[in-house]
Design a protein that fits this description.
The chain is mainly alpha-helical. The chain has one domain (25-145). It contains five helices and two strands, in the order αααββαα. A hairpin with a 2-residue loop joins β1 and β2. α1 runs antiparallel to α5. It is elongated, with a radius of gyration of 23 Å.
């Protein structure tokens, strides 16, 4: 017959240690997801991954006349460069076009005179497909290191 002795103090200490490890893992997970979302939104814009309505011939001519980038969503590069990833608090990060929130809304959803060119939603779909893989990688690394 087996006897198991449970020391409540040691058990509580062990559980607290594992809980702290889990919190560290989740912080790392949230930060990695935010960084990957940032990378994906930039990549979506730079590589023109969307199936967007082409620019009008007039706007293409305007961009050419003033030496602007001919790609959709990029003229001077200012909008793309305004996209940042920032830590909100210990457990939260955000990715957004700092100072260009209204422009992002117009580009994403369109206006009465401009078609929508969804790039945030496109990047989000890609990241959502990767969430399980990201979390599994972090958990595996944490298990190997003995964090959880």
């Amino acid at each position: 017959m087996f006897k198991i002795k449970v020391d409540q103090v040691r058990a509580n200490r062990y559980l607290k240690q594992k809980q702290q490890g889990f919190v560290l893992v989740m912080k790392q997970y949230v930060e990695q997801v935010a960084q990957q979302y940032f990378d994906e939104i930039k990549d979506t814009i730079q590589k023109q991954k969307g199936k967007w309505v082409p620019l009008t011939p007039e706007y293409q001519a305007f961009k050419a006349r003033y030496g602007l980038d001919p790609r959709i969503l990029i003229a001077t590069g200012g909008y793309e460069q305004s996209i940042v990833v920032e830590q909100v608090n210990s457990y939260s990060w955000k990715v957004y076009p700092k100072g260009n929130e209204k422009l992002a809304e117009w580009l994403e959803f369109g206006t009465s005179s401009m078609p929508s060119r969804p790039h945030w939603r496109l990047a989000q779909q890609v990241i959502e497909a990767k969430l399980q893989i990201i979390l599994q990688n972090i958990i595996n690394q944490s298990l190997i290191k003995g964090i959880i």
